[in-house]
C-alpha cells in the first residue's frame, strides 16, 4: 500500500478523468493507513514477544532493546547508504515536465555527510524519506517497557494513558519533531490483545466480516477526509486495532489459507527491507521512465504509467529485499539472540 501510494504520487495529473481514476486507485494505495497498521501491529507484536519471554526485569528489557537495535539498524544503514550512493551518482534536481509537484519535495539537495549522518541517527529523513516512521518505531521501543508494565498492572491506568496520549497527539503539530505522539498507536497494539480475547465469543464468520469491514473502511478513508489530518490518524488507528484483534480472535489456522501461505510469509519476512528499499528503487525506475517515455505520453496516461512504475519497482525491490533479509537481517537477528543468551540471560536454576 505504501509503495503504491508513492508510485501514485510520481506523475502530474492534468486531466479530470485521470484525477478521478487516481482517487479510486488510492483506495488500494492508501499509504497512510499502511503506516498506521504498521505502528499498531508493532505494539501488538512487541507485546507478544514480551509475553512469550515471561520476564519483565531490567535485564530482560535490556535484551529487548538490544534485539530492537539489531532488528532496526542493520537494514536501515544499508538502505541509507544505498540511497546515498544513488544521490552521489545521479542528480534529481532537474525538473521533468511530467513530474508531480510532490516529487520535487525529495532529493533536491544532493548528498552531504551531515545529511547522511542525520538520516542514520534518525534526526532527519532526507536521504531515505520513509525512515521518519523508524524514528517513531525507536521511540515506541523506548517507551514500551512503561506501556507494558502499566498495561499489566491496571487496565484502567492504560486506558487513561491512551486517552491522555491521544489528546497530546491531537494538540501537537502532526509532523513536528515531537513525534512521541504517534506512540499511542503502540498502546492500542497492546490493547488489541484484550480486544482479541473478548472477540473470541463471536463466530468465525462474524470475525471475518469484522476484519474485512475494518480493512475496507481503512482503505476508503482517503475518500472522506476529516477536518484535520490528525483525526484521520486516530480514526484509522482504531480501525487497525479492530482489524488486528478480529484476526487474532480466529484460532483456526485453516481459516487463514492466504495469510499462512509460504509466499505470503516470504513477503512478510522481507517486508521491512522492502519498505526501506522501495523508495530509492522507485526513484531510479521513475528516472528511467522520464528518459525513455516522452512527457506527452506520460501526461496523457499518468495512472497507467504510475502502475507500470509500481509493478517494475516492486519486482526489483522484492529481489533486493530478499537478499537484504537473508544475508543481513536474519544473521543479525540470530546474532542478537545468541549474544544475549550467552552473555546476559539468567542462568537456569536446578530443581534439585
Topology (elements, then pairings):
Elements: H1 2-8, H2 16-28, H3 31-53, H4 58-89, H5 113-120, H6 132-153, H7 155-171, H8 184-199, H9 204-220, H10 229-248, H11 262-292, H12 295-300, H13 302-343
Helix pairs in contact: 1-3, 1-11, 1-13, 3-6, 3-8, 3-10, 4-6, 4-11, 4-13, 6-7, 6-8, 8-10, 9-10, 11-13
Strand content: under 5%
The shape is globular
Can you summarize the main beta sheet?
Answer: none
**Spans where pLDDT lies below 50 across 5 or more residues:** 347-352
Number of domains: 1
* Cα-to-Cα separation, first versus last residue: 55 Å
Q: Could you state the order of secondary-structure elements as H and E?
A: HHHHHHHHHHHHH
Class by SSE composition: mainly alpha
Oligomer state of the chains in this structure? single chain
What is the rounded Rg?
22 Å
Helix count equals: 13
Mean pLDDT equals 90
Q: What is the total tally of β strands? A: 0
Q: Helicity range of the residues?
A: over 70%
